[in-house]
Amino acid sequence: MPPLKLISGSANPELSEEIARCLGAELSAVVVKRYADGEVFVKIDESIRGADVFVIQPTCAPVNDHLMELLIILDALKRASAIRTSVVVPYYGYCRQDKKLKPREPVSAKLVADLLQVAGANRVLSMDLHAEQIQGFFDIPVDHLLAGPYMADYFTREGLVDRDTLVVSPDVGGVTRARRFAESLHAPLAIIAKRRPEPNRCEVMEIIGDVADKRIIIIDDMIDTGGSVVSGAVALLERGAREVWACCTHPILSLDAAERIQNSPLQGLVCTNTVGIPPEKRIPKMHLISVAPLLADAIARIHEDRSVSALFEEYA
To answer: Which residue among 136, 150, 235, 257 sits deepest, i.e. has the most Cβ atoms within 10 Å of its Cβ?
Structure first.
């Protein structure tokens, strides 16, 4: 079996270090610098010839910088004769641009998939893709992990699940994710019907389901500006909900999203550490769950050619 090597980009080094600790391994030495004009320079500071390499780099903000850094790392590994290079992208940037909605629009999620493959990726490991069809954009194996079981365990352990708990999907596109989550909690499901007049702006049109006197858990794959989840919480409370919680896998929290959520009627936000969260955005209402053990287990299974899907057979 080839040696296992872990390489971290600069997007979320804390997560990379935690994954390494879970695996009982060390991160390989890598030098990442930027020239005055913004160009990225990468040098792998140890031999990885014949190694099974896993590059850990969520493509979170600044998305373009972290994506370009990842591509350059992949190119360096390809030229250094790694036997296999797997890209661990807990958060897949450009995932919302997965289809054409209007004429002359790009499918940027497919473009990113092409770039990763051309740069030298042999396998992709990601978590809670915005749209599951993104897996089909790749001509290489894709392992898609789910954070739902971890968040469901959190709500159960904290005593936030009872017969009055109701899971809500913030839009029609998230129904499958919300249904899985609801089934794991043995809770009913409701749906918020909304429309987006423009990017990062939404309007609640209707709520499908009885929410009166319920403890609501809104589940989504990501929270960007926070407008959708906050407006959804307000609409649910106006219709008689007892309290509203939110949970998501990827807390992007752009602009003043953290402040908006802290000042909202939400009871709390449960999220994972797939992306780096700066201290100023770690608000009191945030409850952070680490997915490092899950990612480490998946990396070990891929390295040892064992089943990754077995991690979720019971949940599925």
So the answer is: 257
Q: The tokens of 149 are what?
A: 């079981």
Sheet holding 189-198, edge to edge: 201-208, 189-198, 165-169, 215-223, 243-251, 268-272, 286-289
6-29 pLDDT, tens digit each: 999 999 999 999 999 999 999 999
pLDDT in tens, 228-277: 899 999 999 999 999 999 999 999 999 999 999 999 999 999 999 999 99
Q: What angle do CA 250, 61, 114 make, to 5 degrees?
A: 85
Name, in order, each residue with C-beta under 8 angstroms of 220's C-beta and a sequence gap of 6 or more. 169, 170, 174, 177, 228, 229, 246, 247, 248
Q: By the 8 A CB rule, do 264 and 299 touch?
A: no
The DSSP letter of residue 267 is S
CA atoms within 13 A on the CB side of 215: 14
Per-residue 3-state assignment (H helix, E strand, C coil) for 22-86: HHCCCECCEEEEECCCCCEEEEECCCCCCCEEEEECCCCCCHHHHHHHHHHHHHHHHHCCCCEEE
The span from the CA of 293 to the CA of 290, in Å, is 7
End-to-end CA distance of the chain: 31
Give the pair of three-digit tokens for residue 283.
Answer: 């608000």
Element (H, E) at 178: helix 175-185
Q: How many residues does the chain have?
A: 316
**Buried (b) or exposed (e) across 281-315, using 16+ Cβ within 10 A?**
bebebbeebbbbebbbbbbbbbbeeeebeebeeee
Cα–Cα distance for residue pair 97/32, rounded to 1 Å: 28
Q: What is the 3-state secondary structure (H, E, C) of 87-120?
A: EEECCCCCCCCCCCCCCCCCCHHHHHHHHHHHHC
Q: Which pair of structure tokens corresponds to residue 263?
A: 């000042």
CB-based contact 276:12 (threshold 8 Å): yes
Q: Residue type for 41, please? A: F
